[in-house]
Amino acid sequence: MKILLQTALLVFACLLTLAVDVARAERIQATLTGYEENPPVSTVASGQFQGQISRNEDFIDYELIYNDVQATVTQAHIHFGQLSVNGSIVIWLCKTTQAAPAGTPDCTTPSGVFTGTITAASVVDAGTSSQQLTAGELSEVIAAIRAGAAYVNVHSTLSTGGEIRGQIRAGRRR
């Protein structure tokens, strides 16, 4: 009986520790519309991006959902740029024929749902020396998200610069 009680207490303590670790994950989210594109786009398309930054900031679990894109979706990514300013691609979320990192899933048209885990290996070079964000710098991407300087957008053949976009907002640690 005593061993059974000790085992039950140990299992309870482990579950409580796990629940606390999960609860400390920081939520991030963005609502994607054509109005946030630069310049704005008149479209019926919409989307949502949501995720959680891990407690130790080693990864971000995410989900990207977009609907009713008006032409063939060509790519979706996270960019390094503040509201109303275009910035460089730092993380690919889906692609078609564009050169993208290995393992990037193919985009779907007119709607799509993509889930995954972003790690340091997911971060690509920002492509311009003026932005000074290089491949593998997940901590810099997380800092940009927290500062309001990262956005998600979905590109199409009709709107090559992006059809829908949303600035990523960081929430409280839960």
What does this structure look like?
This protein is of the alpha+beta class. The chain has a single domain, classed as Immunoglobulin-like. Helix content is 18%, strand content 36%. The protein is built from two helices and nine strands, in the order αββββββαβββ. The chain has helices at 2-23, 138-146, and strands at residues 26-32, 46-53, 60-67, 73-80, 88-95, 112-118, 150-156, 164-167, 169-173. The strands form two sheets. The chain has a five-stranded antiparallel sheet with strand order 6-3-2-1-9, covered by helices on one side. The chain has a four-stranded antiparallel sheet with strand order 5-4-7-8. A hairpin with a 7-residue loop joins β4 (73-80) and β5 (88-95). The chain is globular. The protein starts with a helix and ends with a strand. 34% of the residues are buried. The model is unreliable at 4-11 and 16-22 (pLDDT under 50).
